[in-house]
Sequence to fold (398 residues):
Amino acid sequence: MNVPAPISHMADGFARMSGQADVILAGQNGPGATNLVTGLAQAKAANSAVVSIAGALASGHRYQEAFQEVDQDALFKPVTKKVWTATNTGRVPELFREAFREALAPRQGPVQLNPPRDVLSGQAEFEPFQTREQYRPFIAPAGAPQAIAAAVELLMDARKPVIIAVGGIKNTGGGDQCMALAEARNRADVWTRIFKAERKFYLSKRDADADVNAMPIQPSGLFKTLRDVLPRDAAVTMATDALNFWQPKSLFTQLDFGLVGFSFAAGLGIKLAAPERPVVSLMGDGGFGMTVSELSTAVDHGINTVTVVMNNRCWGAEKAYQRDFFAERYIGADISSPPFDKLAELYGAKGYKATTLDEMAQAIEAALVCGKPAVIDTDVDPSALYSFRRDSFEHRAG
Fold:
C-alpha cells in the first residue's frame, strides 16, 4: 500500500484541531514511506502531533540494494522530532508508547516509527498495555511564579504591549485566559484603544475597497462575500488571513512551508476532529487538482466539508513571479482543469458553479447544509496575481 501525501495532511489537520496525536499507517517501505515526507515536513512546521508508521525493509536485507530499499531513518530525521526502527517484536509496545509521548510533549510535532517486515511478522508475549494516562504527557509546562509576576509587571508597564499567542495557548486551550489578560491590559492603556479604533477603520476600509462588481471575479470581492456569509464558528483552511476569525482554531494554513495541495485534505482531518464545526477549504485549481482524488475518501466516510476552488487556470504564485520579475516570460504557468463542480458530482459529492458573487453566496449557504462533501468551482481573474515572496527576487528589482 502506497499512502498518498494528502493522508498526511488529513492527520496534520486532525491533530491541530483536536490537540491529540493522529496516526498515519503508510503500509509498506519504499514509496509507501517516501510519500510521507512532504506531509510530515508540513506537520513539523505546524508543531502537529502526528505519529507516522511505515513498514521497513526486513532487517537482514538492509544495505543490499533490496527491492524498495531506502534509508528511512535518514529520510525522516530532518522532518520529524524523532525516528525509531524497531529491532525486535517484543519492543513494539515500548516504541509505540515512546512515539506518542514524544509527539505530544512540548514542543509537539510529528514522529516516525519504522517496523521492519520481520518485526511485523514476529510473535511475542506482551506485558499488559499501559493506559494513556500512564505514559503520555497531560500537563503542560508552567512558568515559575516569580517569572510570571515579573512578566505581569513588565506587561502592565509596557507602553505598547503586544500579545503573541501561539502553540502554548492553542494546545492547552488557554484562549479564554489569554483574552481575559488582553482585556485587563486594555483597560489600563490611550494606545490599545487607539489600536482597536485603527483596526476597526482598517476592516471597514477593507470591505469598502473590495471590488464586488468586476467580472471576472476579483479575489477581494470573493473574500468580502465569504466574510459576509460564513458562520462565525467556521474553520477555514487557506493561505491568507483575508477572512474574519472569531474563536481559537479557526484558521489553518500552510505556514512558512507554503505547501500546495494542503487545504482540502487538511480540512477533512479538521472535520473529523470537530464534526460540529463548518469546515471550508479555499484552494486554487492547481492545488485542488493535486488532491481531488480524496473526494472519494470524503464521500465514502461522510466527511462533509466545503471546498471553494478559485479557478484562475494557472499556478498563481509562479505566474506572478514570472510576470513581476521575469518580464512575463511564462514557462509552465498556465494549466487546464476539468469543471470541478461536475467532477465532484461524479464522485458522489455535491457540485456548484459560481460565476458571480451572488451565486457564490448562494452556493456557500447551500453547500453548508447539503449533507454531502461539496465543491464550489468559481472563475477568478487570472490577472489578479500576487507575488508572495518578493524579498526572494530583490536582485531582479527594476
